[in-house]
Every structure is written in structure tokens, then in C-alpha cells.
Give the backbone structure.
Amino acid sequence: MALSGLFLISFLSLHFFINMVSVFSADSFNAMSHFMGYNPLIQFVMQPVLIAGVVFHFVMGFVLELKNRNARPISYVKYNGAANASWASRNMIISGVVVLAFLGLHMYDFWFAEMNYKYIAVNTINETRYYEELVHKFESPVRTGLYCIAFVLLSLHLWHGFNSSFQSVGFANKYAKALHKLGYAFAIVIPFGFIFIALFHHFNHI
Amino acid sequence: MKLTLQIWRQKNAKAEGKIVEYPIDGIEEDMSFLEMLDVLNEQLINKGDEPVSFDHDCREGICGSCSLFINGEAHGPDRGIPTCQLHMRMFKDGDTIFIEPFRAAAFPVIKDLVVDRSAFDRIQHAGGFVSVNTSGNPVDANTIPIPKHDADRAFDAATCIGCGACVATCKNSSAMLFVAAKVSQYALLPQGRVEATDRVLNMVAQMDAEGFGNCTNTGACEVECPKGISLDYIAQMNREYLSASIKG
């Protein structure tokens, strides 16, 4: 879980950077998106690795949850989980399922559409279509709202997941405290940055 | 103090258990929690009823025998203590107190509030020792210089009394904090390094075989641990385990 989580964190950082470019420059966003969409190394090596990483992470998450539930077949009548652990750490399965559901919508919106454009409909290469496609998706208030909710849950997932990943791989030294703070900052800046980008395009194009 | 106790009663390991309500009066705030249960049991015996079974021994926070889950927390609402050092001043007159056994598939209930924690013994038997017989000669131990920081950390890990609060409080019933403390107390000392690879692999394998859950780093164990064993020991054990797995 930890290693796949750290891998997805690094992907999320890159995704955030590219999306943030769309706020500042449509041309740069188009250039970056076109590079990501047509570079063979990214398309045929990195993309399958990423999909495998996502599938591994959520399948292992469900397996872990199931095994852990079986480890306590009779529940407590009174269990005060809030007394000793954060909501985010106790409910990774809830935040994870919401993020997974969002990922389904996201794949439908962008990835399937992209696959269809390139490999099924076999359209001609258009290097300037990406910005318009992005903006078009954020026109709908429902889609933008769902996007924002999912990223609040992603923030909670990262609030625990970032530091938990490092703990699982045995990271505990004099830099651990600084890393914890970085983890909390990452859990706020990246998801809320994505929300900002969504709201920016939504309100700029209605 | 006047209290309402909601206590898990279960005749034996195979019987179905249930929560039974016991009103109790005349409890003083200076009593320990176990003394309060002693008062209840005296009343039950006088009435001809079966007293409530619960684990206890030293009653001074050393032995790790007491094991109650009180109002949703292992060892109750106070911090850094086992149940025997919990005092009734932590509660208010008129309170309802839920008292349950530690719950985990690896800690089956024997009777009422008593659970079988021999899974911890079996984990210890799998590697929680140093095989070399030092023949009780203190000179030998003192001839090996050990950095103060390592000695202190090993000692802190060794303060684990094996009560099982970490398992009881963990939402996953994970025994990682217990095993991490036992692995680390040896791994940090030169005497323990010799068998460090086999120790961590064997103890973790036994932990898994006992049916404990997996650690998701919620940190609840560290908060409820009566000896304040740090989560850092889990990171230490994870490092030990990773390097031992690579070495084989």
C-alpha cells in the first residue's frame, strides 16, 4: 500500500503541475497535454504502469480492509475511536472509495474520450484541442461540484496516507517531523489546488 | 458516587455473551477502577450471583494483567496507565460505564472480561529472546560499550508490559506495537543484533499466524499504551523487516 501510495503521490504532483499551467497559459497547457498524449514512452510505458499502480492500490486497500475486519469478528458495544485517532486515519476506506468513484468519472470524462479520439475514431492530430476540452468539462456545475467533493475526500486520504506511507517503509529519523509537516501541507495544497483550478475554469467560462 | 455499569457477561468461551446492567452506589472517587469492581463482586456474591471475572494481578501497573475496555477505550479514559491505576475520580456521579473485554479474533474471551492473550506468548517464543546464556555474570554485559541513545531506546521499548491494549484499541486489532517493541528492544543492542534477522521474520510470521490485523498507522495504540511505547518502534521494525526480507 505504502509504495503504491507514494508512487500515486508523485503522479498526483505532476498532474497538479500540468493542470495548474492551464490557469496561466492555454498554449502551454496544450503543448504539455499533447506531449503527454503522444509521447510513446508516456503512452505505452508510463500509462500502463500508472494504471497498474492505481489498480494495485485499491485492490490491496479492499483486501486490507477485509482482513482487518475479520481480525475482530465481535465488535465493541461502545468504541470511542475519536479518542485516540483522527477521522482521516480511521476512514481511509471511505475516502478511498469516494476517490475511486471519482476516478471512474474522471476516466469516463477524459481517458476514455482520449482513447476514443486517438485509437477508435482515429481523428487527425490537433495540438490545440486540450484546453477547450478541459474548460468544457468544467462548465457543468454538477460535475464541478462532484469534482470538489472528491478532492476534499482526497485531501483527507492524503492527510493520513502521505505520512502513513513513510511510516510503513520505516522512515523515522531527525527529518521525520519536517516530513510530517510537509505531508500535511501536501494534503492541503494539492487537492485544494485542484479545486481552485476547477472553480477557476467553471466561473471563467459560464 | 452512584453509577450504572454496563458489563459484558459471558459464561464461557463457547457461550453467547451480552451486556448486563448493574447499578452501584457508594463508590468513592479515590477507589481504583478494580476496587470498584471488587465492591460490585462482593455485592453479587452476597446476593448469591456469579461475580464478574476480570484479569488482575500486581495492581500497580507493572504486570500487564488487567485488560478492560472501558467506555470505548482500552484501560479507560486516562492516559499512560493500565486499568489497575485508573481511579474513579475520572468519572462523575451518575455516569454510565461500559466495561467490555479486549476484542480481537486472536484474543478469544474465556469468561466475562477475561481474554486469552497467549498469542503474545507464542509471538515471544518465536524470537523474543537472546539465545546466548550470559551465565548471570554482569561483567560481560558491561564490557560492551553501547551508545546512550541506543540503550535508552532499547530500555523504552522494553517497558512494554504486553497488556494487549494496542490490539484492543486498534481498529484493525493489529499487534504491531507490541511486536515492534519486542523486536526493537533486542535489535537496538549488540547482544540482540546476532539473531536480528531471524527474530523479526519469525515474530512477524507468528503475529500473522495468530490472526492479528494489519497496521494502518492510525496511532491509536501509541495513545492508549500504558507505557507510552512510540510509533517510531513500528517504523524501526518495518526497517528491520525490510532488510531481513532482502537478506532472506
In short: Residues 3-114 of chain B form a domain with the Ubiquitin-like (UB roll) fold (CATH 3.10.20.30). The radius of gyration of chain B is 20 Å. The beta strands of chain B are 3-9, 18-24, 68-70, 73-74, 96-101, 109-111, 114-115.
